[in-house]
Each structure stands twice: as C-alpha cells, then as structure tokens.
C-alpha cells in the first residue's frame, strides 16, 4: 500500500523551519509495511491544498497531512477539508472537555478561539491528541484514507503512535517487513561498499541493503520483504552475523544507538568515570556526553581550554611545548588528556585540539587538522584527523571519532 505525506505551511516553503515531520512519519510507515511514494509541501492556501489533495488521492492509498490546525486565522486546514469532503463543522464535546482540562491544569482561561478547536468536520473520525488541543482527523473516501494532524511534532507523534498506527494495523492487512540497521564508524561509504561487495552480491533477492551515510558514520540498513515476520527476522539476523565477521572493527552499534549512549552503558557497567579537555570542539563533546540520562554516574566535568592561557593555567601545559610544537599538536593534546584526567581524578579522559575553520589554517596545518587523545592510567593514545573546511561538520566529526576511540579503549579493542 502506498502513502503520500503532505505538509501544509508557508514556513516550510520559505525554509523558516525544517520538515522533520515528514521524515518521522515516513520512518513509522516503513516499519509497518506502507510504502511512501511522495512528500509534498504546500502553502496555506485553500486552492493549493485542494489541488494537492486531489493529486495525492489519485496516486496513494493513504494521505497523511500535517499543519494548519491551530486556532489562528492562517490555520485553514480544517475548513479546507470540510470543502474537500463536502461536509460542515460540528462541535465535538469530548474534545472541548479535553481542552478545558488542559487549560485548567495550567490555570488558563479557555477563550472563544480555543473553544473553536473543538469544532470537527462531520465526515471525520476524531483522533485524540493527548499532548495538545487540536485533534487529529481520520477521513475515508473511495477506499482512500486521509489523516490530518497538527504540525507541532510532539503532538503529531502522539497521535500517530496512540491513535493512527493502531487503527491502520487493525483495519488493514499489511505485508511483513523487517529492518535492521548496523552502525559503522571509521570507514567511508565507498570503501565500506568495496569491503562488503561480495556480501551484498550474495544477499537473497528479498533482502535489500541500503547505505545511509552521515558525517563520520555510515549506517547499513538491511530490509527483508515477504514471508512471515519470524522467518524474516531470523534471515536478517543471519546476515547481520555475516557482517559482524566481515567488518567487526567498524561496527559499533545497531538501530537507534548513539556512541554517547554506548559509552555511557560501558562506563556504568565497569564503574568508570570520564572527563574532557576541549579546545576546538568548544564543549560539544561534554554536551553530548551529558545529553544521556544518568550521565552524572560517570561524567565528572570538563576544562574548556580554548585559549592557550587556559591550557597553561588550568591544564599545566608547558608554554615551551606550545611554542615548539603548536597548540594543535600530538604533544599538546596528549598533555591535555593526561592533565585533565589527573586533575579531575577520572579513569578516562578525552582531549581535542584543532583548527575547526573556516580560517586559521597554515600550509603545515591546514583547516580541518585535528588531534584527539584518550588517556587512561596506562597511558595516552592519539589520532590525527585531516577534515575539511566546514566548521560545524569538523566539530561533529571530531566528537564522533573521539567517542569511538574511547569505546574501543574501554573494550580493549585496537584504536
């Protein structure tokens, strides 16, 4: 069965916000066996919305719509849907009670504009919105399903998970699809493809492999179609085992794992602690470490030694080393990692120093030159990266490489 995702809102078209809703909806539909054939964005204009709905109805079985369900005048989706389905609005008492309950909890007064959120098209089945005031709406027309939801991501997600997906699974027979994502780090997409080309060529016809590259990480997604779910899961598991034998040094996780989550679990399991000394990453590594719930069990602190004076005063780096080797050097990053580990009394430490860009490079040390160090009681291991000229990407990739170095060190793997 095919689906189209329609996003309504001028803010999407002018680039004011990124359309993350369509990506998330597509992921959920793919999991349950519905193929997304098109993403469409359209303006807050009735004629444009109706034309988009007609085109989607002609090519898809499911049409998912987000946006334009707020209480203000520019939110016209609900009225446009009434026109499209030739119906009118009716006051929906359960929705109004929910709105009153939400406002009462926040000590707010329900205005007439807020009350209008409880008006629903007579042709729809309301989809309860546990996170907000605008319900989702389920329409059926000529064996096609239209689902309209708010554009606010957390409201849309709640409606999809709690209402829409369960209703789809109950009402429709969908094919079984099994996905497994393998996360790799330390090798580029083309080199990875070359290493596993025989594996890919020998995959059964009903199992497909997709490469999903991002800065510093390449995801490999295996998708199996047809047959019973249990059998597909077993087949995909066997293929994952083969990959583990072919590229064990590059695989760090699966599915939605992140390196910082994996590191957190390892540190907790081993009852170890971590500190950071950051220069070019500007606290980004510490931010990612502390984004994991429970990180206070292992993360002790950081010294953000952006300036050389801080490296000298807070980390004890010798001025002579900075003058002789430069702040961006193996000698300095090693000393940074050693000193922060000893000063904050941790088992592990990460240190970074580099030229993030877009300025500051030299012939000897061009933009994107980065040094990373991992320190333990047994010594320091370092890595030099030669990245590009994009500052944001360089900071992100430095963190990815640093995390994977730490992961390997904790597991006693070759860094």
Distance from N terminus to C terminus (CA atoms, Å) equals 46 Å
Strand content bin? 25-35%
CATH class of the largest domain: Alpha Beta
Strand numbers in spatial order across the main sheet: 2-1-3-8-7-6
Structure description:
There is one protein chain. The protein is globular, with a radius of gyration of 27 Å. The mean pLDDT is 95. It has 415 residues and is of the alpha/beta class. The strands form four sheets. It has a six-stranded mixed β-sheet with strand order 2-1-3-8-7-6, with helices on both faces. It has a five-stranded mixed β-sheet with strand order 14-13-15-16-17, with helices on both faces. It has a four-stranded antiparallel β-sheet with strand order 10-11-9-12, with helices on both faces. It contains 16 helices and 17 strands. α2 (20-32) packs parallel to α7 (153-171) and α3 crosses α4 (77-84). It folds into three domains: 2-171, MoaB/Mog-like domain (Molybdenum Cofactor Biosythetic Enzyme, Chain A, 3-Layer(aba) Sandwich); 186-254, Alpha-Beta Plaits (2-Layer Sandwich); 259-410, Maf protein (Alpha-Beta Complex), CATH 3.90.950. The protein is 42% helix and 25% strand.
Provide tags for this entry:
Maf protein, 42% helix, alpha/beta, Alpha-Beta Plaits, Molybdenum Cofactor Biosythetic Enzyme, Chain A, 415 residues
